[in-house]
């Protein structure tokens, strides 16, 4: 039953949200990593608005690494936590330039070694930049996976390992954006719209199966 339900849910997610997601504006891998770093606690729209000007101003990873911190801050001022992000961007680019010959590493440990990069950012980058399979667990994936009964881990790292055993490997890279879309539109954090959810019959936290109205779940 578990295998059947997972297959059904993944098929529905593919149908509704698609199997590919347009990535952030970039021409080089280090630029994609920078964009993902900037997206933390910010909207994709906010990030996309600053990227063209940012990468026009700093066209190579070396230029970003050597730029005065104030210039980087000025370029991303409209993004939340811009001072901290500018500082991490500069440090990260310096590492890429000095320790990795200007190329972003292709392994999880190498990417995690970079300043300002956590596991979620690293996994998402490797998937989007190099096509390396990985399950990226953000707040939406964490919440919905537990509601569906796919995971019971207490932290993202535990949930990541659980999802890797449940999901087919060819779905790892897209489960993140699919559940982000689903989490924003339907399975929201405070009050899920269970009556509108196409996954409701497979959700372990929905007790009311008659489809009458919304039901708060956590």
Automatic annotation (TrEMBL):
PROSITE patterns: ENDONUCLEASE_III_2. Keywords: 4Fe-4S, DNA damage, DNA repair, DNA-binding, Endonuclease, Glycosidase, Hydrolase, Iron, Iron-sulfur, Lyase, Metal-binding, Nuclease. One of its GO terms (molecular function) is metal ion binding. Its EC number is 4.2.99.18. Gene3D superfamilies: Helix-hairpin-Helix base-excision DNA repair enzymes (C-terminal), Hypothetical protein, domain 2. Binds 1 [4Fe-4S] cluster. [4Fe-4S] cluster binds at residues 187, 194, 197, 203. It catalyses: 2'-deoxyribonucleotide-(2'-deoxyribose 5'-phosphate)-2'-deoxyribonucleotide-DNA = a 3'-end 2'-deoxyribonucleotide-(2,3-dehydro-2,3-deoxyribose 5'-phosphate)-DNA + a 5'-end 5'-phospho-2'-deoxyribonucleoside-DNA + H(+). GO terms for biological process: base-excision repair, AP site formation. Residues 38-185 form the HhH-GPD domain. Pfam families: HhH-GPD (PF00730). DNA repair enzyme that has both DNA N-glycosylase activity and AP-lyase activity. The DNA N-glycosylase activity releases various damaged pyrimidines from DNA by cleaving the N-glycosidic bond, leaving an AP (apurinic/apyrimidinic) site. The AP-lyase activity cleaves the phosphodiester bond 3' to the AP site by a beta-elimination, leaving a 3'-terminal unsaturated sugar and a product with a terminal 5'-phosphate. Belongs to the Nth/MutY family. This is Endonuclease III. The lineage of its organism: Bacteria, Bacillati, Bacillota, Clostridia, Lachnospirales.
